[in-house]
Sequence to fold (390 residues):
Amino acid sequence: MKEKPNYTLSEMTLYFLKLGTWGFGGPVALVGYMHRDLVENKKWVTEDEYKEGLALSQLAPGPMAAQLGIYMGFIHYSFLGATLAGLAFILPSFIMVVLLGMAYKIYSGLPGMQAVFYGVSASVIGIIAISAYKLTIKSVSSLNLEAIKSKWLLWIFYIAGIVVTVVTQQESILLFLACGLVYMLVKAPPPWIKKPSVIPSILLMGIGFWQYKGETLEEIGWFFLKAGTFVFGSGLAIVPFLHGGVVNEFGWLNEKQFVDSVAVAMISPGPVVITVAFIGYLVAGFPGACVAALATFLPCYVFTVAFAPSFKKIAKNNSIRAFVDGITSVVIGALVGAVIIIGMRSVIDIPTALIAVLSMLALIYIKKIKEPYLILLSAVCGLLLKSFFQ
Fold:
């Protein structure tokens, strides 16, 4: 019999409401806050329960921090706990980016706003570049020769992700799935491969506030549903997928607007993936923001609550782990490719190049600095540069 929790559902919901309001720093920081608060300080969750949730959030598609929050709510309060924890975590940042979207639509044509994003866009490139490097080291392998030799196939997928993204300027879901399947077959083929007689059963789980078209909302829904279903790991892993669809395929935003969207997500609390709500707002007002956010986070919620009850057994399945490893490597490669594409269009002169490089150096050498502070400093730099030198 499961031990009775030492907290109420309302206390857990209030905690995630606060975390979604003040939790800056991206997925790694948010995951760290949950461990510090829920495991170490409050002792609402055991170390083993936290580790199981973290493993599930890395294995399943969707934003890692949001998945872990949903799992924390599920542990003692099942589906209701998962639902309330997820909503409380996402709602504050959703409201914030919608308000920022309203301001952006009103003021983006003004010189002051343009100057702010002149600096911010360059800084975002530096931040994403460092994040891509960290994800590479964590999910593919370290850069020493022995590690590269042992993970050579993952490095091939990684390079393929870079090349395909840069050449085609979009991301291929089929490439992601193919790499996952190949790595699974090579590293840990499932039993049904070895026994063809057994048929597997696979379940694939003014400000323009109200200005939208029905067909646009439908396109937004399907596109962001795919983004939430096929992107694994850190919130920034979704950036190349979004770039390929939002900028290249549908043409909803131009390059500058897309980079600004990523910047808005980085200065907002909560999950970085909330950038989808900002993008949805720019494309189709408040209804677009709601549809984009719901479509992106729905797969994350469904996967988490579907697998949480039996996850201990699933987590030990080597075939599933290998499949996810293969997909993750090519997705991170696609992220690097997206950094290259966006960087070529956002770093347009010596000042923006300096801002990007200094942002990278700050993240490497100033351990305590957080991304939102860098974004704000870059905004000030942009204002000063545009005011005094142009």
The chain has 17 helices and no strands. The radius of gyration is 21 Å.
